[in-house]
# Entry
Amino acid sequence: MNEKVDVLYNASCPICRREVEHYEKLSIKQDLPIGYHDLGDDAALDAWGITARDAAQRLHVRKDGVVYGGIPAFIVLWQEIPQMRWLARLVALPGINWLAVKVYDHILAPLLYRWHVARERRRQSASR
# Structure
């Protein structure tokens, strides 16, 4: 059986939450040893050894004590879920991996992070 895998994600991001909830449903349905943790939990962040900002900037996955971020994290997660293994193999291919990393690191992750920061500012303004 696989070692437990942990996923750290931004549950306050509607896009991130929707995607990760899909993986979580697949995991639960198949009784896979995958834990899902919201970056809003300070105890979770301490255990991961990363800052809230780093955690909010991209998906993180921990397996066998190693923390992966971004596309490598998605690949590790997808390898654990039988229905997603094909995607892990595809995105791990050299040319596709290069493109996926560039798009995620330079377009998608920064955009999602900017939305996160804007949501946090609105939330803080509303609470004042």
Summary: The longest strand covers residues 5-9. Strands lie at 5-9, 34-38, 60-63, 66-69. The chain has a mean pLDDT of 92. The longest helix spans residues 94-127.
